[in-house]
Amino acid sequence: MPSVTASDGPILGGTIETNTPKIEWDNRHGTPCLRFTFSQRLSEQGARAAIAEWRRAFDAVPFGKIVLLWDCREMSGYDSEARIQWQETLKELKPRIKTIWLITDSSLIRMGASVMSLFSSLTIKAVRSEDDIIIG
């Protein structure tokens, strides 16, 4: 099981480390965002560890809705069980999610995001570049 440690905790600008993805708070135009930076392949164990940190991050900011940034530019793929875990967490945390931005060129990852979007009834906005993200 991947090790999970918190460096600065949920404070904006703090980083939460996992094997994959890296999770950190980001502040864009005064809006708190939780950024997930994926690298390589997301395994079921990696997803479970990241989901635990994701829940802790949401618990630490118990008010309002949070923007999620999924940077998948370095992601090579995912295990189907990881996708299932991820979409079930989306459905559970839906009341706390304002918007999801997916950054990728991969049609495979976009397709998986579409499945998660349908299952959770959340809109996932796919862009090719971080410059295309508009938060407001």
Overview of the structural elements:
Helix 1 (44-60) runs parallel beside helix 2 (80-93) and helix 2 packs across helix 3. The chain has helices at 44-60, 80-93, 107-120, and strands spanning 5-6, 15-17, 22-28, 31-42, 66-78, 97-103, 124-127. A seven-stranded mixed β-sheet has the order 1-2-3-4-5-6-7, with helices on one face. It is globular. A hairpin with a 4-residue loop joins strand 2 and strand 3. It contains three helices and seven strands; from the N terminus they run ββββαβαβαβ. The longest helix is centred in the middle third of the chain and has 17 residues, at 44-60. 32% of the residues are buried. The chain is α/β, with parallel strands linked by helices and 136 residues long. The model is unreliable at 1-13 (pLDDT under 50). It is 33% helix and 35% strand.
Topology:
Layout: E1 5-6, E2 15-17, E3 22-28, E4 31-42, H1 44-60, E5 66-78, H2 80-93, E6 97-103, H3 107-120, E7 124-127
Parallel strand pairs: 4-5, 5-6, 6-7
Antiparallel strand pairs: 1-2, 2-3, 3-4
